[in-house]
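Worked example (supplementary).
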Amino acid sequence: METATRAYPPGEHPDQKPPIGQSGVLYWMHKNLFSSPFNVILTLLTAYFLYLLLPPLFGWLMIDSVFVADSRDHCRELGSGACWGFIGKRLGQFTYGFYPHDERWRVVLCFALFVAACVPILWDGAPNRKKWLYFAAAFPFIAFWLLIGGNGSIAAYGILFALVVVPVVYFSPIDDADGADTGGLTYVLLAVWAFLLIGLQNIFFSTDVDIGIGGLGNVMRTLITLLLIGLTMVPLFHRGMAGKLRRQWATGFFALAALWHFVGGTNFGFSSDHLLTIVDTDQFGGFMLTMVIGVTGIVVSLPLGILLALGRQSDLHIIRWVCTGFIEFIRGVPLIALLFVASTMLNYFLPPGSNFDLLLRVLIMVVLFSAAYLAEVVRGGLQAIPKGQTEAADAMGLRYWQSMRLIVLPQALKISIPGIVNTFIGLFKDTTLVVIIGLLDPLGIGRASLSDTKWQGLSTEVYVFIAIFFFICCFSMSRYSIYLENKLHTGHRED
Amino acid sequence: MNDKTELAAQLAVSDQQMIRIQQMHKWYGQFHVLKDINLTVNAGERIVVCGPSGSGKSTLIRCINRLEEHQKGEIWVDGTELTSDLKQIEQIRREVGMVFQHFNLFPHLTVLENCTLAPIWVRKMPKAEAEQVARKYLERVKIPEQADKYPGQLSGGQQQRVAIARSLCMNPKIMLFDEPTSALDPEMIKEVLDVMVELARDGMTMICVTHEMGFAKTVANRVIFMDEGEIIEQNEPEEFFNNPQSPRTQEFLSQILLH
Ligand SMILES: Nc1ncnc2c1ncn2[C@@H]1O[C@H](COP(=O)(O)OP(=O)(O)OP(=O)(O)O)[C@@H](O)[C@H]1O
Ligand SMILES: [Mg+2]
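After joint prediction of all chains, the assembly is encoded as:
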């Protein structure tokens, strides 16, 4: 009886295609919308609500709305829907804040470069990705220069730092004689310090400090700067140098160049306002300000958050206590309070007479705030990595930073993607809080524009417009995170 | 049975000391896990460590590459003493490979990347050369065709063989195995043991915690029995199994041989 039902002798059954799936619109509807009486009721109710909601909404947004008008009354004459003409009139301000009209091209260029820098970072299939990544590393410094202006020395040192010093330190072989590779970290810190020195000069000292080498003459001083910069680059071309010497060389000469710049005040022959007109950060506003705070916050807080998370898990008690204390403090305080501290109290701790840029202070607070949250998200990911992973890495002789960078973090960050992106989205939306301390983000601009007597009573349009902008940004981040999760999925989970 | 024991006898053991452990003690907090361990392993020796659960077998071999720290006594590996000096620890770890019960492969890297990671980052080997070496060892553990898969796509036995290949890529002088087959289904145990037997045949110095007594009889030249943190007895396999000295060894053997 049994053999009669078999189409093939035992052991000889060929591989066959799965049965053809039932498909089609009707099948889908039946399966997803009308599979049970309860489901039918739900579907009908939803359809009814959509019927009530969508046509009027669409009418207000699109069909009855007015895109070009001179005043609110004009709008009302032309149509009963939204008055987008108002937004159109104010679009420049919504986008650039009070950035000088003639310099707006810099913002546009900066945004274009930003998009270009995002491509190799977000898409690992990008052609020539490696070269693009170098551009992405240099982008922050270019952006800084474009937006703020000046003679470009910050950009020059920044690019030197990102494209020469960091790669030399990072890619130089670690010789056995070097000991633990915290060595590499020391060099990076040295170079960061040198970089900050230049930054400090720009922030605190509007005039160059002259300690007497001014007598050398501008040409001579610039030549010495160029020489030092040139020497910094030597390890890039001299492949034969030993690893340790390469790192010391690059960071050492970079620090010297920075120091020379700091005390000698070279400006490459350009006065500080020469190449690009300086725009004060209090003229930043609108979506541009949102992007500046949001993107800087995201880019800086992620590495900081990772370091905090690692620090909180560290075997070294002091580091653990400091990181834990920092995280708990920041998480326990509302962002608004931190922003108020940034806008008022911080002046207290600074040398009198110094003018610490308000936007920079806000950025620092936003970064610290989101870093603390990210640290907790990443810590969750770190805890999910089995101890066997680090043990295997240890047993093979990998050092702490190697095993973190190559083994633990890639896995921990992958698990943490939803939480990380969640924090990013929160940060991006929280940028609107800066309106409270007087920065003119889109909400601030919107509120100011509402007081225009010609256009009174259009708050709905303004806020819907701002909402759409934020929704597009946040929704893209959310979709990207889903794409990333799928891409990083490597087969079954290992237990 | 006869040719098995012959294999063990054939394999040469030099009198060069690879590992020397002297009066070594270890505590977990107040708990005295390892008590007065004395053990010398010569190059080419294959040592099997057995004993009841919780007797400190894993702890002992994990002390040899400093995954666990000992508090008293000395451990010398290939002429270097294990202290808290990071450089010496790294030097020793480069020469000592370890295979774990749960494989501990890196799930986010392909099999090939798992194998080339340490040679590239620790031995500073050029990538192309590291891949060549990795393919050679994957061939040796008989899974060259899986090089581009992720560990999660392999069976347990295949994963453990990858783990062995991964260790071998560092060209270690000593291999430590911590119950390499006890997380595997019976039909996979053999494929892993076969690889280990071949490794022994090639003269690798091995310390292996295992309850595979067949393996102990085939390749070991010494079997060590541990209980409650002490080495109770060590002997050549034949003597050890046929003529155990201490009552605890006899009891242990009678239990596992019942299965
Ligand atoms: N990290 C730890 N902290 C405290 N006690 C531990 C730790 N690791 C192991 N122990 C204890 O030390 C003893 C020895 O553990 P070990 O893992 O070496 O045993 P084992 O002989 O390998 O046992 P098994 O056959 O079950 O693997 C056990 O009693 C265990 O509970
Ligand atoms: Mg064990």
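Two points are worth noting when inspecting this output. The mean pLDDT of chain B is 91. Strands of chain B lie at 17-28, 31-42, 46-50, 72-77, 80-81, 96-99, 174-178, 205-209, 222-227, 230-235.
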